[in-house]
Design a protein that fits this description.
alpha+beta, Nuclear Transport Factor 2, Chain: A, 4 helices, about 35% helix
């Protein structure tokens, strides 16, 4: 039974990563996320609810119109799915206060999502945004001039 729950949860999280984040399928977002979704690690100054996550996904696709996730692996423990992935894109809109640079970027993310009754209910995550700021030229990369 746990294996079935884990496999179903992984499939839901994968659809969010590939079809919503990667494909901009905003109608699917509403289907995949619980109305009482709670983000345990929101971006600074942002709300922890479902609407805020959708806003973040949309902002990412404006900043990086070719935004593409690459899932390296997923592991599930019951209804909690941990995913390690790299996001790729071309910086063509404002992101983290940085105007478009036209640079190609990539950054790693690890997140955990809890799936309840077929919907994503909780999120915990860490993204390497320091690396993004280095790639955009905002922060110097040690040893690079």
């Amino acid at each position: 039974m746990t294996q079935d729950v884990s496999e179903q949860a992984k499939a839901i999280v994968r659809r969010n990563t590939e079809e919503v984040q990667g494909g901009g399928n905003w109608a699917l977002f509403d289907t995949l996320f619980s109305d009482d979704f709670y983000d345990h690690t929101p971006q600074p100054g942002m709300a922890r609810d479902k609407a805020n996550v959708l806003g973040l996904y949309k902002r990412l696709r404006v900043a990086f119109p070719d935004f593409r996730p690459e899932i390296h692996w997923q592991r599930a423990d019951g209804d909690v799915v941990t995913t390690f992935k790299t996001y790729h894109g071309t910086h063509l809109g404002e992101f983290l206060g940085v105007p478009a640079t036209g640079r190609k970027i990539s950054f790693e993310t690890v997140d955990a999502m809890r799936v309840v009754d077929g919907k994503i209910a909780d999120h915990w995550g860490v993204a390497n945004l320091y690396s993004v700021l280095q790639q955009l030229g905002v922060i110097a990369t040690p040893g690079v001039r």
